[in-house]
Amino acid sequence: MEEELEPQAQEIDALRAEIGSLRQSAEERTIEVAALRTELVIGRQEQENELTALRTQLTEAQQARVEAHRRAILAEHTGQVVEELVRGDTIEELNASVEPAQAAYGRALEAARREVGTTVVPVGASPRLEPGPEELSPIAKISAALNRR
Predict the structure, then answer these.
(1) d(CA 66, CA 88)
(2) Which of 1, 27, 101, 127 is deepest in the core (most CB within 10 A)?
């Protein structure tokens, strides 16, 4: 009976050796997978950092572009708009704000013209104020009285 069990025992020993080899291989693969995961996590973090930096650069470039466009609009419309009303976070918003800024400037200009139009300004030199009698000498008082005639 031992002779019948011998081939089975050898087969069992061979299977156990194969199982041991497979376990060792599985452990090596687990270590390899962990190392690859670590590399992947580090690579992903680097990509996220680079993406964040690129987004920041893009935002700054867009803001600079919008500010440059605002300066161009103000230069183009000097004396035609209320500068404080030309504002926006995008070029489209800036462009849309030009018309209301021009309208506000026109209203302010018209109001100023109406105000100036009601102000009477004497023709020629500005009116001279004569000094009061207490400020004049006796001769100046006599001369002023004679000149009024």
Answers:
(1) 8
(2) 101
Segments of the chain with pLDDT less than 50: none
Distance separating alpha carbons of residues 91 and 43, to the nearest angstrom: 37
Buried-exposed string 42-57: b where 16+ CB fall within 10 A, e elsewhere: eeeeeeeeeeeeeeee
Query: How many C-beta atoms surround the C-beta of residue 18 within 10 A?
Result: 10
**DSSP-assigned states of every residue in the chain:** -HHHHHHHHHHHHHHHHHHHHHHHHHHHHHHHHHHHHHHHHHHHHHHHHHHHHHHHHHHHHHHHHHHHHHHHHHHHTTTTS-GGG---SSHHHHHHHHHHHHHHHHHHHHHHHHHHHHS---SSSPPPPPPPGGGS-HHHHHHHHHHT-
- Cα separation, 62 vs 45, in Å, equals 25
Residue whose token pair is 């704000």: 97
> With contact defined as beta carbons under 8 Å apart, do 82 and 101 qualify?
yes
Model pTM score: 0.55
Extents of the domains making up the chain: 10-118
